[in-house]
């Protein structure tokens, strides 16, 4: 049961990155997921390459979380490495394109890192 919950969490959290960062036709979003406060503060012009970078990093994060979830479901020890890489990638993404709406995502990524480093849940180690 624990394995299934951890796997489902990793899958869902990963796929949410795509749902947030991929362009879609929604008229209203609470924030612009492709606006980088870091790049704006550095004076970089808003460009399609910045949008592509955000989408690319979100895609990498999603892929790593899905790999971590699949590895956890298969009870492979490699899930921890994939989960750590996914969480680090997610934190980088959220740091560069931060908005207060992403605070929960930051906490979830930090939680993944803390759980892996604490060898929790024990059933997966």
Secondary structure tally: strands: 0
Q: Low-confidence parts, pLDDT < 50 over ≥5 residues? A: none
Give the mean pLDDT: 88
Integer-rounded radius of gyration: 15 Å
How many helical stretches?
5
- Helix/strand order, N-terminal first: HHHHH
Q: What can be said about the biggest beta sheet?
A: none
Care to describe what's here?
The chain is mainly α and 125 residues long. The chain has one domain (2-22, 34-124). Helices cover 67% and strands 0% of the residues. It is built from five helices and no strands. α3 (48-73) runs antiparallel to α4 (79-96). The chain is elongated, with a radius of gyration of 15 Å. The chain starts with a helix and ends in an 8-residue tail after the last helix. The mean pLDDT is 88.
Layout of strands and helices, then pairs:
Layout: H1 2-21, H2 37-41, H3 48-73, H4 79-96, H5 103-117
Characteristics:
125 residues; mainly alpha; 5 helices; elongated
Short description:
The protein is built from 5 helices and no strands.
């Amino acid at each position: 049961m624990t394995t299934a919950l951890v796997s489902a969490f990793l899958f869902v959290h990963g796929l949410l990155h795509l749902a947030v960062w991929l362009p879609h036709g929604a008229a209203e979003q609470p924030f612009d997921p492709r606006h980088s406060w870091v790049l704006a503060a550095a004076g970089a012009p808003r460009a399609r390459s910045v949008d592509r970078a955000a989408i690319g990093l979100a895609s990498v994060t999603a892929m790593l979380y899905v790999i971590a979830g699949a590895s956890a479901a298969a009870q492979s020890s490699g899930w921890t490495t994939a989960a750590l890489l996914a969480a680090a990638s997610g934190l980088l993404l959220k740091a560069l394109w931060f908005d207060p709406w992403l605070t929960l995502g930051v906490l979830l990524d930090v939680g993944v890192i803390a759980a892996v480093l604490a060898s929790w849940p024990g059933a997966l180690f």
